[in-house]
Structure formats: C-alpha cells, structure tokens
Specification:
With 205 residues, this protein is of the alpha/beta class. The protein has five helices and twelve strands. The structure holds zinc ion.
C-alpha cells in the first residue's frame, strides 16, 4: 500500500506497515503526525471549532466484507469507480468522509483536519444532542460485522485515541462511542466483533 511515512515513523519495514510509530496531533495543522494525509473535499466548518468532545468509532469495508483496494480512499475523495463493483452503484452521489482510517495492517490515513467537521455520523444523537458530526471526531476501522479486527488495528487505535485525549481536553474516556450507539437501528458499526473491553483497557495500559 503506497503511503507517505514521516521520518520519525519509518525506521523499519514493520513501522512502514503501520503497526508501530509515535502518534501525536500537530496543533498547527490539526493532523496526526505520522499519518498519511489524503485530504477529502467532504468537510465543512464546525459550528464551534473548539468543541471537539466525542470520539466515534466506525467500521467500513468496500465491497462489504472485503478488505484492501483503493475503494475507501476513493469513496472519501469522491472518485469511486461506480462500475467497478455492483455494490458501488448504491454509493453514487454519497458525499462522506471520516477524519481517519485504520487499515487492517494498522496503516493510518487522515482525510479531514480535526478542527473541521467530517461527514461520518449522519443522523445521530448523543446524550440528547443531535448532529454528532458538529462536535465529534470519526475514526474508521477497515472491518465488518463478521470478522475480528486485527491486533495492529487495536494497537494503532489505542495510540491515536491517546493522542486525541491529550490534544482535546473535552474528549474523555467516557465520551467514546460506536456509530451504532449514536445511530441505533440505522447503523451497526463497528459491530459485534469489535472488542470494546480490550480497546478501553488498552487506553489505561
Ligand atoms: Zn459508521
């Protein structure tokens, strides 16, 4: 998978595969150091740029239940070839994004700066407050409801989460949810195979 790796993050082929490396938010760019930067046009201004107070975990696979390929990047960049797979026709005219994607091998891509509003949650509600995109960060894991996530993904997600908790004081451990929690009945991701106890315990380790 082609990617731009910062010097800090490129000591070994293993690091290049995305399973290791220091993760921190650059306050000037509102981007994660060490992430591949692939800017999506699907974003706009947050109503209150200082209100970054919820982390939403998602899962995505394109086509469904299949991993690899350029399709997720292409979807977020509005360049998906809708003829490449029958399922893709249903995604025509969809304009979506997430702040970040963590691939099966742990490789990290960022599409939207954290002080901007990415379009990941859709119709949603958290503790009585609607439009979660306004005040949340969305992280996609390459995955699906049927297959377990990888160790490299948990490791990377843990590091990214710690970096976000350090950078955004209104975020907190008890303000991390799944997409299914804020859009119940409409969304199932990150799904039953996402190991919440493992993830949350890892944040304390
Ligand atoms: Zn989702």
């Amino acid at each position: 998978m082609p990617q731009n790796i910062s010097a800090m993050n490129a000591q070994t082929p293993k690091a290049a595969a995305g399973s290791a490396g220091r993760v921190a938010v650059d306050p000037a760019t509102q981007r994660l150091r060490g992430a591949r930067w692939l800017p999506s046009p699907n974003f706009d201004e947050r109503p209150d740029p200082a209100d970054v107070s919820l982390l939403v975990i998602h899962a995505i696979s394109l086509p469904p239940d299949r991993f690899g390929g350029p399709w997720i990047d292409d979807l977020f960049l509005n360049r998906l070839d809708h003829a490449a797979h029958p399922y893709f026709a249903s995604l025509r005219d969809l304009k979506v994004s997430a702040h970040c994607l963590i691939r099966r091998d742990g490789a990290l891509t960022q599409y939207v700066a954290f002080d901007q509003r990415a379009w990941h949650a859709g119709k949603s509600q958290y503790r009585g407050r609607e439009r979660c995109n306004d005040f949340s960060i969305g992280i996609e894991l390459e995955g699906c409801d049927r297959k377990p996530f990888t160790q490299a993904q948990y490791r990377r997600l843990t590091r990214v989460t710690r970096a976000l908790l350090r950078a955004y004081p209104r975020l907190a451990r008890d303000r991390i949810v799944g997409h299914s929690d804020i859009a119940p009945g409409r969304k199932t991701d990150p799904g039953p195979r996402f190991d919440w106890p493992r993830y949350l315990a890892g944040l304390d380790a």
